[in-house]
Amino acid sequence: MKSFTYERATSAPDAASKAVSIPGAKFIAGGTNLLDLMKLEIEAPRHLIDVNGLGFDKIEDTADGGLRIGALVNNTALAADARVRRSYGVLSRALLAGASGQLRNKATTAGNLLQRTRCPYFYDTNQPCNKRQPGSGCAAIGGFSRQLAVIGSSEACIATHPSDMAVAMRVLDATVETVNAQGQARNIPIAEFHRLPEATPHIETTLAPGELITAVTLPAPAGGQHLYRKVRDRASYAFALISVAAVIQPDGTGRVAVGGVAHKPWRIDEADAQLPRGAKAVAERLFTGARPTPENGFKVPLAERALASVIHEARAS
Amino acid sequence: MKFDTPAGTNPIDQMKVVGKAHNRIDGALKTAGMAPYAYEHHDAVNNAAYGSIVGAGIAKGRIRAMDLSAARRAPGVVAIVTAENAGTLGKGMFNTVKLLGGPEVDHYHQAIALVVAETFEQARAAASLVKVDYAESEGRFDLKAEQSRAIVPENDGAGGRPDTDTGDFAAAFQASPVTLDATYTTPAQSHAAMEPHASMAAWQDGKLTVWTSNQMIDWTRTDLATTLGMQKEDIRLLSPFIGGGFGGKLFLRADAVLAALGAREARRPVKVAMPRPLVPNNTTHRPATIQRIRIGASRDGKITAFGHETLNGNQPGGSMEPAVVQSRFLYAGANRMTRNRLAVMDLPEGNAMRAPGEAPGLMALEVAMDEMAEKLGIDPVEFRILNDTQVDPEHPDRPFSLRQLARCLRDGAERFGWNRRNATPASVRDGRWLVGMGVAAAFRNNLNLPSGARVRLRGDGTLIVETDMTDIGTGSYTIIAQTAAEMLGLRLDQVTVRLGDSAYPVSAGSGGQFGANSATSGVYAACVKLREQVAQRLGFNASDTVFADGEVRAGNRVARLRDGAQEGEIVAEDRIEWGDLSRTYQQSTFGAHFVEVAVDSFTGETRVRRMLAVCAAGRILNPQTARSQVIGAMTMGVGGALMEELALDHRRGFFVNHDLAGYEVPVHADIPHQDVIFLDEADEKVSPMKAKGIGELGLCGVGAAVANAVYNATGVRIRDYPVTLDKYLDRLPAVS
């Protein structure tokens, strides 16, 4: 771990402006991912701006019947919130499928969206990785890739986004609220928040330098059955091989997003439209253009089968 | 004491303390955080500096140049050790590869430097500034590709011959009406002990003290002396508490060597803990195997031909994974053969991991037996019993010392409700789950090693036991105290046990499930001597003296035990040695594992629902710690069956998933209720304790029982471990 300086932010614009002006600065909230990466020197920030004191730790009703989730609301509190459990069950289920109780107590809503890939080559500083060291190459391509992306990947990177929560946020059409160094706020639809790797896999989101997430808002409840199905080799405390977040209406219509398959939560509007026709039709549309490796080709049929499980469950209840 | 005739009646048979369930006597220390592990002897030295290991970034090649300038300038750095300034280093008897590499690199993450600094963080930061210029060369990383170049090793990895032949296997196999010829693969596995390898070293007047985490004090002290070119008397090794070993800490490793070299270079004590991501490639692992099994049988299910061949890779000079050992003893059959083949490779060193040999061997053999039973149309429990043997199948004049495998299988089947198993695969459903049951025999040879101990009777009537035996979380402290208490007629709380210090008599150490039986036998021997001395001091005739309730009794005479030590502490030391009984009798441990699994018909996820182990392993010294050993081993078996695999990058020659996020071991949610039954046994041909090992038996066969249950649930036979869903998803029922 490299030495770093540390300060507590006094306001969001103050934090954002310092993040821009101080070289090598990074925000820290729960630190559940960043501190691990710092110990391994995959991240080496020279300055940490602690945003925990900024007060973004409330879940509030919005005027249009939705919820505004403060960036600092921890995963445990969010999963347990009565409104979330009642009207956004897929989010609660996704959160509880991730990490462990201790980690969820510390991990924040914004931090969860910003967690970095679990590609093993990203974690080994002896190995080339375009995400860790732009331009160095990708050791994962042609290597051990069982966990890695099957769609939306590039010649530069086949990493996946590891979050469960983000998959639920994607299916719920959440919006990410931010503030920048000038104090200007903006709203980023979750669909536009995470980037595909293309030639610059180290740029993972559409956030501008210094831009700080203040909240994530959910639109008014969509109704329907809320399901989250996470598939993994062991029963708990493992990243998804694939996961399916779905909201399914009584008439069989609905929406679906898939985790563990791409650099971002994977959702295709045209695939949603296929839901009444069943898992096969949805999966065909979701994975058009998929380029799995020899080791992770199973993820495509697995996602279809998990989706079939979800549809089956929705119909049964 | 030499144990060369069956034990007969002895004081252990009283079973007032031995054989009773007792909490671990070190449990309170551990739960209170007061049991110091290797890195935690904070009060033992002043002014310790911290060492950070630099691991090689390539798998095979040569270091052209190392630029240490930035690291030397980094804040807090006090010393850097590399092969260039370490001086001439020897190589220990138990080490295959040099523990400090350079200029040649033998495997990925081989230690090539230690950076010592004032703080841990400074050392780690400076270590990352070491710039290494490598000349990378081609390596041999793919076992299948090396198969044709494999050699016949010196031995089978367990001291046996590499090839064995009894009768005429080839002819008998060809003539058998029912045959199986199948190949199974097991992956490389990591010990994944909770406590990573760690050591602290301090020099004083040319003598070295090392606090470390190690299963075998004397082996490691000796190898450290060899490596450093010292007399072993000038080294003291301490390892009183160990956070898991599983074979990964049997040997001297880089942490201890580099702590010693770092402390010498820095002229002050140095601590070195291996970061988790370094452990799988820097240290040893269980090597991957490719095993071919051929079984021929008559139509009524009698095995007539039995062949087991295994292949693994290892570093030059490395050893076999003895995966065919159990196949020489487990089932009858007149015509048999085993083969061991070793491919020389450039992956990290393969070596012992819990139940080396039997663990991967039974993962293959006990699936083959399941396949064979199905071909014969015989229940798999009955098929095994039908081919049970009371004699060594290769030497029919040589009986087992005690073998109750059939009873383990029968009792287990009844207890588990095996008769409710549907023999037709894929025929039991529970909602979306496909449900199945599997069985496997458990077998692990019993080993005994010489083991010494010293006992001190104090004037207050309490007893101190000293031996360099280790407790790797198994309960050694407790069973040793129980043994001494039984022998001297004391309560458990009157016995203090001191372990893991090379200042004490050399013991068996912990490994190969030989620790419990050997070390307690050593304590037994020392206590026999002490009893003689006490009797003599008290003027008793030793032969009819009874030690009970803090008293010594003979005929009408009664004295307090403490009176024996009134004129000063009485010290007795002895060592158990082993005669020919293990040659006259085949000494092994037996069991049966029963498993019920459910496989998600949509996703293929396998979840274990119930587990039962029935074990026959001689006298159980403490049913509570023994049960903990077995349920831990069963848990490890589930890991081996369903998830554990060091994933190999064949191009770059290293294990990629080298941390506990990538190398998955079971978590609580994976493990259901586990039942363990011990048969009430005492094997007087094995030791004065009449006990055998139990710590590894619990793992042996579990993987196959799980795989057989998955087959029963789904009808899909997977011969390639771990049994993960990607290997059978396309053969599950259609769902869309």
TrEMBL record, chain A:
InterPro entries: CO_DH_flav_C, CO_DH_flav_C_dom_sf, Diverse_Substr_Oxidored, FAD-bd_PCMH, FAD-bd_PCMH-like_sf, FAD-bd_PCMH_sub1, FAD-bd_PCMH_sub2, Mopterin_DH_FAD-bd
Keywords: FAD, Flavoprotein
Residue ranges constituting the FAD-binding PCMH-type domain according to the UniProt record: 1-223
UniProt superkingdom: Bacteria
Record-given protein name: Xanthine dehydrogenase family protein subunit M
UniProtKB/TrEMBL annotation, chain B:
Domain of life of the native organism: Bacteria
InterPro entries to which the protein is assigned, alphabetical: Ald_Oxase/Xan_DH_a/b (IPR000674), Ald_Oxase/Xan_DH_a/b_sf (IPR036856), Ald_Oxase/xanthine_DH-like (IPR016208), AldOxase/xan_DH_MoCoBD1 (IPR008274), AldOxase/xan_DH_MoCoBD2 (IPR046867), AldOxase/xan_DH_Mopterin-bd_sf (IPR037165), PaoC-like (IPR049648)
Gene3D superfamilies tied to this protein: Aldehyde oxidase/xanthine dehydrogenase, a/b hammerhead, Aldehyde oxidase/xanthine dehydrogenase, molybdopterin binding domain
Ranges for domain Aldehyde oxidase/xanthine dehydrogenase a/b hammerhead: 32-138
Pfam family, one: MoCoBD_1
PANTHER family: ALDEHYDE OXIDOREDUCTASE MOLYBDENUM-BINDING SUBUNIT PAOC, XANTHINE DEHYDROGENASE
Name used for this protein in its record: Xanthine dehydrogenase family protein molybdopterin-binding subunit
Species: Teichococcus aerophilus
